[in-house]
Predict the 3D structure of the following.
Amino acid sequence: MRRLTLAALLLAAACRPAALRAPEPPPAPPAWEAENPVRPLPRPPLGSGADFARVPWVTPEKARLGRWLFHDPRLSADGTISCATCHEPQAAFSEERPVSTGIRGQVGRRKAPPILNAAWPLQPVFFWDGRARSLAEQAKGPIENPIEMGNTHEGAVRTVAAIAGYRPYFRQAFGDDGVDIDRIAEAIAAYEATRLSGDSAYDRFDAGDEKALSEEAIQGRDLFFGRAKCSACHLGPSFTDARFHNLGVGWKAPPPGRPAAEGFADRGRWEVTRAEKDLGAFKTPTLRNLARRAPYMHDGSMKTLREVVVFYMRGGEENPWLAQDARDADFMPCEVSALVAFLESLEGTGHEDRAPALFPR
Ligand code: HEC
Ligand code: HEC
């Protein structure tokens, strides 16, 4: 046995020079690849509710490709707008404006929501009015929205397919070079799925670290889940039931004699269902990472968290469709700061990123 090993060693030594004459090293990867390598799927931070086993279509290769596509303005009609123009990484993939501005300076009527823990909603509904049923379906919308990226699906596919540098990454993600709108959308959705938020002071407190929250924030937590009734709608790991409620945001009583429904400039969920009960109802937004994405609400009409909490203290804005749970909030002016402190404790980690410096050419 030992003699054999020795012989094998000698043989290996004799082979050394040949081994040195190894085949040519593979060409260095392009600079854009070195800057955006395939990364393992992130480990979900505490309390985020993220679970990649539940979204087997999310792979590291798709998320890498999607990172480029999400940040690539060439997907828009004139090469100026990417998803990240409105979903800015430093604003928790939301924005610091009241409403979005898209292609050729066109101003929309709603604010871009954050993209955090988005692959695990309690109900599969996306947009403020819930008109998309999956993240990938959602991603197709803005590309052809005339006031967002202003392109057509065919136009975006033609542009991406003509960029030779993208081909290897479509092959790695999907098995061949083919580019179509479903693949573009799925890769973008995979990248979005890797933007997580957890391990906030609140999550650590909830996991047993009693020092993670201040006295004031603990008082706010008790109010949030108790008398203030916030958790009637803001529940689950991302603090949203993914259902639709009317708080009266944006309501202005119409002139006498006009139908009450005209009080809403934006009728929200009603635009999808045409059901009277959905007038002025919007999807409950996540409450994670609120700090750097003011102003708040679907129309960005509230500048600070204090303003939002005071709005709830008054029971929302009275209108014929106001949600009962919003009317029921029961807390006092001296308790506003505690609720704000609690909301500030939901500042999580796991989504941080920046635009890639280089893109496939
Ligand atoms: C011009 C600004 C703008 C651009 C560009 C844009 N979005 Fe949005 N995004 C918005 C706005 C505004 C909303 C809310 C619209 C609504 O509810 O009707 C939204 C909603 C979303 C949502 C739903 C979030 C939720 O909680 O329901 C996701 C996800 C999203 N966008 C992803 C993308 C992706 C992916 C792209 C690129 C393909 C993109 N967005 C491009 C402004 C933009
Ligand atoms: C009846 C359901 C409901 C209740 C109860 C409720 N919310 Fe909301 N919350 C919503 C909806 C829906 C929106 C978005 C409304 C809109 O834009 O028209 C919202 C928006 C918010 C926002 C703004 C988030 C953003 O991304 O702009 C904050 C902060 C917030 N709520 C905190 C609270 C607090 C604190 C309480 C308890 C005092 C509470 N909510 C009670 C449903 C509810």
